[in-house]
Specification:
Layout (H helix, E strand, L loop, with lengths): L1 E2 L10 H9 L11 H14 L3 E5 L2 H12 L5 E5 L3 H4 L4 H4 L4 E5 L8 H4 L13 E7 L12 H13 L3 E5 L3 H8 L3 H4 L5 E5 L10 E5 L1 H13 L8 H13 L4 H16 L15 E5 L7 H10 L2 E2 L1 E2 L4 E5 L6 H22 L1
Parallel strand pairs: 1-10, 3-4, 3-5, 5-6, 6-7
Antiparallel strand pairs: 2-8, 7-8, 9-12, 11-12
Helix pairs in contact: 1-11, 2-11, 3-10, 12-14
Amino acid sequence: MIDLRSDTVTRPTEEMRRAMAAAEVGDDVYGEDPTVNRLERLAAEMLGKPAALFVPTGTMGNTIAIKLHTEHGQEVICDDRAHILDWELSMTAWFSGCLLRSVPTDDGILHWDLIQSYLRSKSPNYAPTALIEIENTHNMSGGTIYPMSAVSELCREAHALNLKVHMDGARIFNAACTLKRPVSEIAADVDSVMVCLSKGLGAPVGSILAGTAEAISRGRSLRKRLGGGMRQAGVLAAAGILGLEQSPQRLPVDHENARYMATELANMPGIAIDPAKVQTNIVVFDVSGTGLSPELISADLKQRGVLMNGINARQMRAVTHYDVDRAGCELAVGALAQVVNAAAGARA
């Protein structure tokens, strides 16, 4: 199968598997796993933050961050297709007791002038804003990247109002690749940042939450409450270390493959996509013009050896990663062309 459902399907490299087998371990709940400690130090340094915390999932990382920056009964601003809103089981409400205040955007990017009218101060009638959450790159908008100026302005204005800013940087290394800047610069102004090791970086499990030393210290207790005390987790952290050290260099190939797919898709009847808007490794395209639903296309593609999912009633998403090379992308495009052309022929 050519699997383009997500970059979460990446499998650990042989070097990662060897490192996992040889990892020195201890009890991480006691802070005694040397490989986890090394991963956290490395991640904090790369992200430009004083401290970092290894967590099992990105959802847990975001959940801990929101809890750190808020109190029950407050609001968190995000865009209207944010991962924390649509894909994290209402954890902001369930664990932090906060309401998500979503702001419509065209491309997943929040700008200060766009969110100002959504901010709420203390009042006897409504919940005050405590946190602004941004997603970089933005998943459902097709891997769009926050301009550095937008992040700087948003953080500057938010901090002036004593508001915190958290970055869901699940794919921040993809942003860094396109911007040609270190991740530390991209995350410099935010109060906390979460990074997934198990997407394009290829580790089998895990994410990183980075922020101040005080926040990360409190975050360890929250991780335990959520069931994230993983004991001899060095076998997982070893793969994460290699993901941070080696995998970013491979991301340009994923981006090139995504642009190739977008260009080919733009030439197919009934498919709408602007290849110029594909910035990283996520290709979101509208299939409504084919007369077929994303579910039908997905099922047909599966019969042809390609896995690709719909994300709503009109759009599908293909995510490139190192387990699918250019030849695999070409085969996937060819399979989709067969499905689309057959539908066009039936309508003729």
